[in-house]
Amino acid sequence: MTRLFCQLFDADYCMILLLDPSKKYSALKCVAGKKNKHLIDSKVKITDRTEKKILKRLCSVRHDTLLGIPLISEDIIGMVIIRRGNKTRSFSITDQEILTTLTEQAVIGIKNLQLYDEQQKTILGGIKSLVTLLDTRVPHEYTHSPYFCKLVTGIGHCMHLDPKQIESLKFASLLHDTGKADIPIEILTKTKKLTPEEYDIIKRHPLKGAQILRPMQILKPVIPIIMHHHEKYNGTGYPSRLKKGQIPQGARIMAVADAFEAMVYGRPYRERMSISAAIKEIRKKSGTQFDPKVVEAFLRVIKRISAKIYLKTNKK
Fold first, then answer.
1. Mean pLDDT across the stretch 66-88?
2. For 134-144, how does the pLDDT look when each residue is reduced to its tens digit (9 = 90+)?
3. What is the dihedral of CA 88, 93, 94, 95, to 10 degrees?
């Protein structure tokens, strides 16, 4: 937008500044000229004379080749300042009226983004609270490492998923074992081989998790990932025996990451594997249990993070 304002008003400089709640510092500042642009997202105290004048008077400032407009929504939330280098071309009242109209529309967009950001924080806070509650019910042997989300979203980024898909993966990585809260504790903590009946109960947890989370509309894109993260690429998984492209992409990603952590951290009924052995097993099952493209992405991601994370925590 800064460059657009420079072009529209034939300006050499444009700054869009958003204030922090105290109104004494900038929360975000974007500055652009005709050829360059930079962003400052750290707190910077308001010291510039023009900025302080706009902040104090809550009104526009127009002086020769400088034009400043406050961004107001109930109260001032920021400002736009443009300048021309050519001293002979002063800004007119028409320029001021046009920039005021444009900034009014910008304020609407900024407020919508702020509301969306607050909504996302509320949702993530609620999800983390739910995860904390589930962790008190599910034994720690069945919970994932603090790095599971990083691994899952890392694979997603490596496969060039869009931001919405990455967000769904992030939420799914936190909630994919929700259904285990409904499994009897004696089955979850059993150290011997599960009976066929007990295994059938375990296999119900993806569907149960989807049922628990379905009423939350915001999690609608997450449900297919949770429901199908135990499907296998060759169609022998559960609960629906989907295969290949029938399995949601997010679920195919989750399947690889979930299996890796289960091997590396172990389960009550199974010993831990070394990281190299777990990677070898993932590679071995590419094309049968796992999507080869996901495995390829996983191998690239795990090279970057295993030395820093899993080698420190994979100790008996």
1. 89
2. 666 655 555 56
3. 60
